[in-house]
Amino acid sequence: MDLERIRNFSIIAHIDHGKSTLADRMLEITHTIEKRKMMDQVLDNMELEREKGITIKMRPVRMIYTTSNPLLDQRGGTSYILNLIDTPGHIDFSYEVSRALKAVEGSILLVDATQGVQAQTLTTLGMARDLGLTIIPVLSKVDSPLARIKEVKEEVSRLLDCLQESILETSGKTGQGVDNLLQEIIRRVPPPHELLKSDFDKSNFRALVFDFQYSNHKGVIVYVRVLDGQVAKNAELLFTVAKEKFFALEVGIFKPEESPAAVLAAGEIGYIVTGIKKPGIASVGDTVTLLKKPLPALSGYERPAPVVWASIYPEDADDFDLLRQALGRLRLSDSSFSYEEESSGSLGRGFRCGFLGLLHLEIITERLKREFRLQLIIATPSITYEVTYKNGKKAIVYSPSLFPEQNEVESVLEPWMKLQILTPSLYLGKLSQLLYDHEGEMDHSETFGDGRTSLSVKIPLRELMRNFFDELKSVSSGFASLSYEFESMRPAEVVRLDILVADEPVEAFTRVVSVRRVQEEAEKAVEKLHSILPRQMFVTKIQGKALGRILSSATLSAMKKDVTQHMYGGDITRKMKLREKQKKGKKKMKARGKVNIPHETFLKMMKS
Fold first, then answer.
1. pLDDT of 605
2. Check: CATH 3.30.70.2570 for 495-607?
3. CATH number, domain 308-381
4. Contacts for 205 with CB less than 8 Å, ≥ 6 apart
5. How far apart are CA 100 and CA 125, in angstroms?
6. Strand-strand pairing, 168-169 and 504-505
7. Which fold has domain 205-290?
8. Boundaries of every domain in the chain
9. Domain 3-194, what architecture?
């Protein structure tokens, strides 16, 4: 099929705006999936995606759309190839969205007719505009009795500076307007050749790797957007950046499962089976080209910078190698998280992992548990600090346990985030108090329409992680939406808080907190640990220490055992001697003994 009849597009939307349901109707209308195999959110094939009701991984699929529209017939025939890349809606997975957008020419901007434009809508729209994509504005859930079609159309019209007549109305639930949407995609989204610079010489080949996965049998399978020439099975290819050569064991397309094809040509989206089973070879943004006639590398993708760090340890030390292997496998399907080996005196060997947000951390750790059946300990999530010591030395600190004492520090820089909050004006008072409690700074605000206000806020990342999102939903009764991005590094007034058990600091419980909240945090941590730590054979002190002094303390009483229970009658001095001996043993144990902290206690403390 010639390039005139190919359209590559994605769907971008805020979370829970009906994106996956709309994709279902497209697959039905184009008969891509048989009716007997059809199910809700068919492109969300991961167990976690179905359980949480969100899209986590981008998913490409090829549809063949046949139309009888005479206006479209004039542009090259009745059948068109529509390559859709379904993308996540949550801000933590924006790197998935950015990679998908670079592989297409157009994008559907989907807005829920019952909720209107949300904060994440603005973020993804900005990404699509920066790449010069054709934007098709679409309302979803127009069949709902709560739909505010006229008001939401006005919002979208102002946002895109477009006519309200150009905004399409659809319902993923009933299929209303979906066939018309497919025709508009063909009419508005340009064919690939309008953006390609290739002369389409079939003897050359070049493709951009936008995703990949690993198969135990096939090795690494790269997902590519072909930009030059074509490729067939058994072609000898080269990763331009990795400098690794391989043979194409198979090429194909997505229906949405992998389906072998004779060739992949310029303008198409598909996959190449590499057979490579070594980790660290394939990477997103790399260029695949012919080994004998290599073309220059494409610009690729910018590496995402982790904003949240957490240490992951296996509960059983014997599972360390399995955890390393599992992280390597997950890295093949999610290139936005990073990891490096580390060790802890109390928890043993583990890995320091970087994530794009707290939901990203939750998803990765849950996949490790489910897909690889690992029992894990996840240390308290933290962020990166830039520390300048009094001797002039500078260091980047990833772990709270490595954060220096207050008397060693000259200055500290911490990451600040720029927030976009959309909220009904009714909740501005409560929201202002929430921002004050979390050290937020209001940049500017503007009325967005329909009684809503758009707030631009700057806030420390450590405060964003301190339950800010849940509190935002609480004070706004669930109506406020949030998106965020890195803003800059700023001076921080923070200090290391150590939790001591029997006068020994427990590395896994150490955290970096605001100076103004250190007393409160110390009391909460000590109280929590006192309530969950099992009693020992001797009296155990639990203390919170910061700023060179003990800020909070609690005593855990010892386990009691009546050493005279086996004795009946006789002189009382016999019992007194045994009790005195026990007393001396307890004293010696207190001086020399070590507290055994079970894994369940670590897990409960992390959840707190």
1. 75
2. yes
3. 3.30.70.870
4. 226, 228, 229, 230, 231, 235, 237, 288, 289, 290, 293, 295
5. 13
6. unpaired
7. Elongation Factor Tu (Ef-tu); domain 3 (2.40.30)
8. 3-194, 205-290, 308-381, 386-491, 495-607
9. 3-Layer(aba) Sandwich (3.40)
Q: Do 3-194 and 205-290 come out as alike in CATH topology?
A: no
Residue 556: pLDDT band by 50, 70, 90 thresholds? confident
d(CA 41, CA 552): 51
Q: What are phi and psi of 141, to 5 degrees?
A: 60, 35
Average pLDDT on 493-516 reads 88
Number of Cβ atoms within 10 Å of the Cβ of 36 = 5
pLDDT in tens, 135-147: 999 999 999 999 9
Q: Give the Cα separation of 64 and 67 in Å (integer).
A: 10
- For the beta sheet containing 338-344, the strands, ordered from the edge strand earlier in sequence to the opposite edge, are 338-344, 348-355, 308-314, 376-378
Fold of 386-491: Alpha-Beta Plaits (3.30.70)
Kind of pairing between the strands at 308-314 and 376-378: antiparallel
Complete DSSP assignment for 461-473 = HHHHTTTHHHHHH
Nearest to 1 by CA among 83, 100, 109, 76: 76
- Chain-centroid distance of CA 307 in Å reads 10
Residues 119, 482 contacting (CB under 8 angstroms): yes
Q: How many CA atoms lie within 13 A of 246 on its CB side?
A: 23
- Percent pLDDT > 70 in the chain is 89
Q: Is residue 288 over pLDDT 90?
A: yes
Q: How crowded is the C-beta side of 221, counted as CA atoms within 13 Å?
A: 19
Is the dihedral angle over the CA atoms 481, 486, 490, 493 positive or is it negative? positive
